[in-house]
Amino acid sequence: MNSILTTSRLILRSLTENDAIAVASLINNERISRNLARVKFPYVLDDAHSWLGMLRDSSEEPCVRAITLTGMLIGVVGIDREPSGDAGDLGYWLGEPWWSRGYTTEATGALLDWAFLEKGFARITAGYRLGNEASRRVLLRLGFRHVGHKRIFSLARRAMMEAATVEITCREWFLRSKNEREGGRSGERFLVRPFN
User: Fold this and answer.
1) Phi, psi (5° rounding) for residue 13?
2) Is residue 1 over pLDDT 70?
3) How far apart are CA 93 and CA 110, in angstroms?
4) H or E stretch including 167?
5) Contact 124, 168 (CB under 8 A)
6) 10 Å Cβ neighbour count for 155?
7) Per-residue pLDDT averaged across 166-187, rounded?
8) Taking 80 as the threshold, does the pLDDT of residue 61 lie above it?
9) Taking CA 112 as the corner, what is the angle to CA 108 and CA 115, rounded to the nearest 5 degrees?
10) pLDDT at 46 over 80
11) I want to staple 156 with a disulfide (CB 3.0 to 4.6 A). Which of 33, 125, 149, 168 is the partner?
12) Is residue 189 part of a domain?
């Protein structure tokens, strides 16, 4: 089952081999890769094919979606399930031409709704490189709370980097949503509609 998630502006769908060129061309950008731990730079087409093949061969439906705008792939958002089974680690990136338009927050919010409601996650963590203010703002806007700092190895930098760790629980996510609705705030509820 490959759920397609929709928001007011975006469609989040499963990735296919046909996305390799778009993935490679967008993420082969040092301004993106330097903020990520598991993406090397330069990033070439073979890297995209290898990664997409790994997703395809996964034993369960990956919680990874292409972020698309008017049919065009503009980024990726995903959650890696931790060995405990009910926790996951969130990651995302967006192509530079689409920065500062709220797309990352919108796409990530939709994936969180789906992960908590449909995929049985109880807790989701995320991290951001210290100094990456755009990512910090996205995560705080979504209700993540700071839980610590760590040093992680960045493939693109070929060095350790300092990162902050944040998390949100299923209960926190839906209490926050309920409080926003009851408070009359007009913040977008991510209008997620899964299709099979």
Assistant:
1) -130, 165
2) no
3) 15
4) strand 159-169
5) yes
6) 14
7) 77
8) no
9) 135
10) yes
11) 33
12) no
**How far apart (Å, rounded) are the C-alpha atoms in residues 152 and 17?**
29
193 located within any domain: no
Task: For the chain, give the mean pLDDT.
Answer: 90
The domain that holds 40 is classified in CATH as: 3.40.630.30
Alpha-carbon separation of residue 154 from 33, 36, 46, 165 (angstroms): 9, 7, 19, 15
Q: Of all helices (H) and strands (E), which one includes residue 90?
A: strand 87-94
Q: Are strands 123-129 and 145-154 parallel, antiparallel or unpaired?
A: unpaired
What 3-state DSSP class applies to 25? helix
Q: State the burial class of residue 60 (Cβ atoms within 10 Å of its Cβ: 0-12, 13-18, 19+).
A: exposed
pLDDT single digits (tens) 105-125: 999 999 999 999 999 999 999
Q: Which residue has the tokens 């990033």?
A: 43
Token pair recorded at residue 164: 């902050």
Q: How far is CA 121 from CA 66, 85, 191, in A?
A: 20, 8, 19
At 62, list the tokens. Answer: 């990956």
pLDDT of residue 166: 98
- Amino acid 193: pLDDT: 47
Looking at the structure of the chain, the number of domains it has is 1
What contacts 175, CB < 8 A, 6 or more positions away?
A: none
- Residue 196 domain-assigned (yes or no): no
> What range does the domain containing 14 cover?
5-182
> Please, which residues bridge with residue 92 across strands?
77
Answer whether residue 175 is part of any domain: yes
For residue 67, the cross-strand partners are 12, 75
